[in-house]
Amino acid sequence: MVLPDKRPLILASSSPRRQEILRNLGLDFSVKVSGVDESFSDGLKPAEIVELLAERKVASVSEEVSDGLVIGSDTIVVLNNQILGKPINLEDAFRMLMSLQGSTHSVFSGLTVMDVRTGRKLTGHVETKVTMRGLSESTIKKYIATGEPSDKAGAYAIQGFGAIFIEKIEGDYFSVVGLPIRLLADFLNDFGYPILEIGQRS
């Protein structure tokens, strides 16, 4: 079998969850944090927001490298058309978790992959439905005390202690973690970078 040229992969994110996903696929990659402004205009739909921010991260990092495929992703939690970002303090985390408990919300993850050499890019998103079981105030406070919710959209981590609160999900689990693997695999394959072949060489 003739394997494709192994171009560098650059992840435009400092997220340890996204890095772990790529490592678990056996991929070699470097990390460059974009540091871009993550604000957005009012009136944008959740899918538009995550795609916009993923593209913005990739554009920023692409200016710093001369070759490779840059991967950018952004994730938000949406409940009743309200966007729940990362909590600003403990009280905010408590408010978010109280609103999410006993209900179903959506997690949107946007993804962009760009070939720096050609400027070609692919952008898309995945929506996953997550149902959280009912939680008592004391349980929520104990969870917040672990420190896990502090830097997570929606104030919970599905891959951590937060997993015990999840009743069911409909869609891509990895999208909720922060990086939609199926969509990423499709994009990389389109760029001639099949994960199954490249990962085996790492």
From TrEMBL:
It is an enzyme of class 3 (hydrolase). The keyword Hydrolase applies. Its main location: cytoplasm. It is found in: Cytoplasm. The active site is at residue 74. InterPro entries: ITPase-like_fam, Maf-like. Its cofactor is a divalent metal cation. Its EC number is 3.6.1.9. Keywords: Cytoplasm, Hydrolase, Nucleotide metabolism. It comes from the Bacteria. It catalyses: UTP + H2O = UMP + diphosphate + H(+); dTTP + H2O = dTMP + diphosphate + H(+). The keyword Cell division does not apply. The record marks 17, 75, 159 as: Important for substrate specificity. Belongs to the Maf family. YhdE subfamily. Nucleoside triphosphate pyrophosphatase that hydrolyzes dTTP and UTP. May have a dual role in cell division arrest and in preventing the incorporation of modified nucleotides into cellular nucleic acids. NCBIfam families: maf (TIGR00172). This is dTTP/UTP pyrophosphatase.
